[in-house]
Design brief:
The chain is globular and about 65 Å long. It has 2 domains: 197 residues, 2-enoyl-CoA Hydratase, Chain A, domain 1 (Alpha-Beta Complex); 47 residues, Orthogonal Bundle (Lyase 2-enoyl-coa Hydratase, Chain  A, domain 2). The two termini are 37 Å apart. The relative contact order is 0.12. By secondary structure, the protein is an alpha/beta fold. It is 48% helix and 15% strand. The strands form 2 sheets. A 6-stranded mixed beta sheet has the order 1-2-3-4-6-9, with helices on both faces. Strands 5-7-8 form a 3-stranded mixed beta sheet.
Length: 260
């Protein structure tokens, strides 16, 4: 199955929420080049879509993504790996200005774990498993885990997972701070959608400024991050959303944001 439109399924389950579902089920959603291209195309398109306030990323009920497609890359050399342009596809997701919520069921291993780490919120079913087993096959994480996981759970915990290749349960991941929320298997879809709908009901520019401040500030000094936060905060006072939101709060009613 190579048709990009079939490798990623896209629908809008509620207002402002677009669901992106990996659909390479015969390979446990292993990240082939074609699937990576389809994901990148979906995220770049949705980033420009005014009807999308929040992206809900899922692999379905049985598995999130089992990692890279080893059959595709096992015989390649450095130039061959470089020619796949994988960083370009990761960048399309990382650069997406819309909030991303990952709903993770089953294995999220290697590149699948790194895909989840690109999300802003991770909701995990109890049957989810997380791991970075690359060291066991002679390589290392290449989709951002050496940076994102360390920032998420700290140096020593991240190093243990990467150096040992240990696969951990959703409950262990939640305890490490790697998962935002842990839910029963049958509640994953509804709970992730509930959070996504809540996020999508809020003003688009405020959401984007929050994400921008957090991500850009993480790579800057504290003073620079605080300055960016303040500038974004001030700019929001020139939006109809701010006027309506504060007026509604004072009048004790539900806001009706003009841009939604």
């Amino acid at each position: 199955m190579n048709d990009m439109s079939q490798l990623v399924l896209i629908d809008q389950p509620s207002a402002g929420v677009t669901r992106v579902q990996l659909n390479r089920l015969e390979a446990r959603n292993a990240l082939s080049t074609a699937l990576r291209q389809a994901l990148a195309h979906a995220f770049m398109t949705l980033d420009e879509d005014n009807d999308t306030r929040c992206i809900l990323l899922t692999g379905g009920d049985r598995w999130f993504a089992a990692g890279a497609d080893l059959k595709e890359i096992s015989t390649l050399g450095p130039i061959g790996v470089r020619s796949l342009n994988v960083p370009k596809y990761w960048k399309a997701i990382a650069d997406c200005s819309k909030p991303i919520i990952a709903a993770v069921a089953g294995p999220a291993l290697g590149g699948g774990c790194e895909l989840a780490l690109h999300a802003d919120i991770i909701v995990a079913a109890r049957n989810a498993r997380f791991g970075l087993p690359e060291s066991g096959i002679g390589i290392m994480p290449g989709g951002g885990a050496t940076q994102r996981l360390v920032r998420a759970i700290g140096h020593y915990r991240a190093m243990k997972l990467m150096l040992t290749g240990e696969v951990i349960s959703a409950e262990e991941a939640w305890g490490l701070g790697m998962v935002t929320e842990l839910v029963d298997d049958e509640q994953l879809g509804s709970r992730a959608l509930e959070i996504a709908t809540n996020v999508a009901s809020r003003p688009a520019l405020a959401l984007q400024f929050i994400k921008e401040s957090v991500l850009a500030g993480a790579d800057a000094s504290l003073s620079t991050g605080l300055m960016l936060e303040r500038r974004c905060f001030e700019l929001l006072f020139d939006t109809p959303d701010q006027k309506e939101g504060m007026r509604a709060f004072i009048e004790r009613r539900t806001p009706k944001f003009p841009s939604f």
